[in-house]
Amino acid sequence: MIALELHTRILQNKDWATLVFVLSLALIVIAKSAFESRFNDFIRLIVSDKYTKIYRESNHLMSGFNVLLFIINLISLSFFIQMILVCFFEYGEKTDWILFVRVFTMLTVFILSKFLIEKIIAATFGIEEIIEQFNLQKVNFRTYIGMLLLPVCIILFYGNYASKSLITFIIVTLLIINLLTYLISLKNYQNLLFGKLFYFILYLCALEIAPYYFIYYLITKN
Fold first, then answer.
1. How far is CA 44 from CA 35, 40, 80, in A?
2. Who's near 188: CB < 8 A, 6+ residues apart?
3. Residue whose C-alpha is closest to residue 120's, from 206, 57, 26
4. What would the pLDDT profile of 104-127 be if each residue is shown by its tens digit?
5. 104: closest CA among 134, 145, 74?
6. d(C-alpha 127, C-alpha 108), whole Å
7. C-alpha distances in angstroms, 96 versus 100, 128, 135, 216?
8. Residue of higher predicted confidence among 47 and 10
């Protein structure tokens, strides 16, 4: 008589992620259709400074085009942060939609709160013009990175390629790109910064370094 051993089959629901990824692609299509000329300039951002020269006014920061790309950026970053939590800290599962919602919500609150505090500090130090120009260029590059990160997140989510070494490589790459964007921004606005360099250094320490270190400390200690 053949003995049969039954094992529980664990089903992972990925439907929610598929809907979120489809929504992200739909937002990209909407951005391309509604702002075709601007979108075409934007996708060449990494090889041309035409986009930054045309859309350098601060009123473009809250435009519909940037809002669409900001949502895409939030989605891709939330998925990637979830991968980091699962891979490095063994916290949750990559198919856990509740974890994704928590990460997405916390990331949204963090970015918007940081933006509001930046506005207040910039007004206090009298460097509104510098910060608005700086933030606009920073947003341009970071939303571009978010679009590039989206297909990476799709591959990591549906495939079994996620590993500590691969995710570490992606993190290091993102950090290097972010550092380069800072250097480019500093170079482009050096004339504005020269007169108020001390306040700008305080701004960088308070809002561009300390918050991320604080988050890293909380994650690693808890």
1. 14, 7, 24
2. 52, 137
3. 206
4. 998 898 888 888 877 777 777 676
5. 74
6. 25
7. 7, 41, 33, 22
8. 47
Region at 181 (left for phi over 0; alpha for psi -120 to 50; beta for the rest): alpha
Angle among Cα 51, 143, 50 to the nearest 5 degrees reads 10
Alpha-carbon gap, residue 67 to 61, rounded angstroms: 8
DSSP state of 62: T
Q: Which tokens hold the place of 109?
A: 């609150």
Nearest residue to 122 (alpha-carbon basis) of 204, 221, 211: 204
What's the one-letter identity of residue 197? Answer: L
Structure tokens at 114: 């940081």
H-assigned helices in the chain: 15-34, 36-42, 50-54, 64-89, 97-125, 128-158, 164-188, 190-194, 197-203, 210-221
- Please tell me the predicted confidence (pLDDT) of residue 203: 66
Whether the per-residue pLDDT at 142 is higher than 80: the answer is yes
Question: 3-state class of 93 per DSSP?
Answer: coil
Closest CA relative to residue 75, chosen from 154, 167, 179, 178: 154
- Interacting residues of 126 by C-beta distance below 8 A, sequence separation 6+: 196, 199
Using pLDDT thresholds of 50, 70 and 90, give the confidence band for residue 29. very high
pLDDT tens-place string over residues 146-172: 888 999 888 888 877 777 888 888 888
Which position has the token pair 């972010």? 178
Specify the amino acid at residue 65.
F
pLDDT of residue 10: 44
